[in-house]
Design a protein that fits this description.
7 helices, 14 strands, globular
Length: about 260
């Protein structure tokens, strides 16, 4: 089972760039399943319902979210009706959507979970407890498990991954838009990377026009953030879960990709 995990998709142009590319990339690289963080895919941050549908049509199996996921009103009913889009599970239960989903991929049941960090971010339910409750509630209902930790602090992401090492098959971080170089298999077998990076304009600062960010930092004045133009770069990892003839995972690998 080969799983492609893509970092934060930034800007409508980055969504459109997947249209004629992702399905062929899946075929050429033997990808079975694709997870992508989509909370910044629409203009002004957030994710519009039509952009979410485009991502699914273009080859993404599950869209994960983060702190911007509810910014577009059009997505809220979609979060409740579509199993392929999830949001952080440690937000209040009254929020639209679910923090996990289980999808079938060629007879393999894949549990995908999404949780938000709490260091330098909103004060939410403990991410450790939220994930633990989900795993317990879904025990026996899935074969492979994946967790997207949408968080600011690298230490928090690593701590969550180490706590669930051996209990979750793949754990990856999102949110900072900066890819890290620590892709690894943890001691008890979990595939891990602190941050997948960004899928967005290459000539930018975290997807935004560089001159805007620089001016804001120099003047401290409020400015509207506009997405940069130009070449789009996609960052992520491929996790390969190798199984025996009975579906039991016997080996794993994780490889950073950029295309």
């Amino acid at each position: 089972m080969k799983i492609l995990a893509l970092g934060d998709i930034v800007s409508p142009a980055s969504v459109e760039g997947l249209k004629n590319m992702l399905w062929s990339y899946r075929k050429n690289n033997g990808i079975d399943f694709v997870v992508a963080n989509g909370e910044n895919a629409s203009r002004g941050n957030g994710l519009e319902a039509d952009a979410a549908q485009q991502l699914l049509d273009y080859g993404v199996d599950v869209i994960t979210g983060g702190n911007h996921i509810w910014q577009k009103n059009s997505l809220r009913p979609f979060l409740d009706s579509c199993k392929n889009i999830i949001r952080p599970m440690n937000f209040p239960g009254s929020c639209a959507g679910s923090g996990y989903t289980i999808l079938d991929c060629n007879g393999t049941r894949i549990l995908v979970m999404n949780v938000s960090g709490t260091v330098f971010m909103e004060s939410l339910d403990c991410p450790f407890n939220a994930v633990e409750r989900c795993l317990e509630a879904q025990k026996g209902k899935y074969d492979i498990s994946i967790l997207d930790i949408h968080a600011e602090a690298t230490g928090e992401k690593y701590a969550i991954a180490r706590y669930f090492d051996g209990k979750i098959d793949a754990v990856f971080g999102t949110h900072t838009h900066v890819p890290t170089a620590d892709g690894q298999i943890l001691p008890n077998g979990t595939a891990y990377i602190t941050d997948l990076g960004m899928c967005g304009p290459k000539n930018s600062i975290l997807g935004v026009k560089s001159e805007i960010i620089i001016e804001k930092m120099r003047t401290k004045m409020p400015l509207r953030f506009d997405f940069a133009d130009g070449e789009i770069e996609y960052n992520g990892v491929i996790v390969n879960l190798m199984t025996d003839g009975f579906g039991k995972i016997i080996d794993k690998s994780i490889k950073r990709v950029r295309f």
